[in-house]
Amino acid sequence: METSSGIQASLAGRYALALFELARDGKALDSVAASLTTLKAALAESAELKALTQSPLIGREAAAKAIDAVAKSLGTDPLTTKTLGVLASNRRLSQLPNVIRAFDTLLSAHKGETRAEVTSAFPLTKTQQTALAKQLKTRTGRDMALDLTVDPAIMGGLIVKMGSRMIDSSLRTRLNKLAQAMRG
After folding, report:
1. Residue-wise over 126-145: b if at least 16 C-beta within 10 A, else e?
2. Do 136 and 89 reside in the same domain of the chain?
3. Which of 88, 94, 102, 162 could serve as 64's disulfide partner, Cβ 3.0–4.6 Å?
4. Of 107, 125, 158, which one is at a domain's C-terminal end?
């Protein structure tokens, strides 16, 4: 599999590449991807978990024990659990969001998909996600994998980033353009 040199060059990318190759060779890509999705959601929802991964004050052993307990409570697969242990013992838990993002990029490339980062003011329903993925596939000619985030500050509409391309149809941007046009 061809991987971009950008992923290989980053610290998180090396961990993600190792995890991806182990998962691919062990035919566990789907279970690892599901575990990482669960971890990503847990990081977004839990201030305590985020603090655990970001705090330099937590020692290696304490971080390893805590992250092992988190992995067990979330039901992550064994490969992901081991990777979390390695990140904790190497004091690299702060890289976890980047590892997840790099793994998702590798998985999408493996599946022949293009990743799109989608920001909306409100959570998108499954129907809306499917319609958006179809629309983007029509536009790009490739299957799409969506990374969804919610940012109420955009007020409405969507911001879609695909690589270096960005489509900004947010209400905030439209209002800013209108304000600038009115100023002259």
Report:
1. eeebeebbeebeeeeeeebe
2. no
3. 88
4. 107
Using the 3D structure, point to which of 62, 81, 107 is the last residue of a domain: 107
What is the structure's pLDDT at 152?
Answer: 93
Token pair listed for 123: 């959570």
Range of the domain at 124: 113-183
CA pair distance 37, 26, nearest whole angstrom = 19
Whole-model pTM above 0.70?
Answer: yes
Q: What is the DSSP string of the chain?
A: ----HHHHHSHHHHHHHHHHHHHHHTT-HHHHHHHHHHHHHHHHH-HHHHHHHH-TTS-HHHHHHHHHHHHHHHT--HHHHHHHHHHHHTT-GGGHHHHHHHHHHHHHHHHTEEEEEEEESSPPPHHHHHHHHHHHHHHHSSEEEEEEEE-GGG-SSEEEEETTEEEE--HHHHHHHHHHHHH-
Residue ranges of the chain with per-residue pLDDT less than 50: 1-2
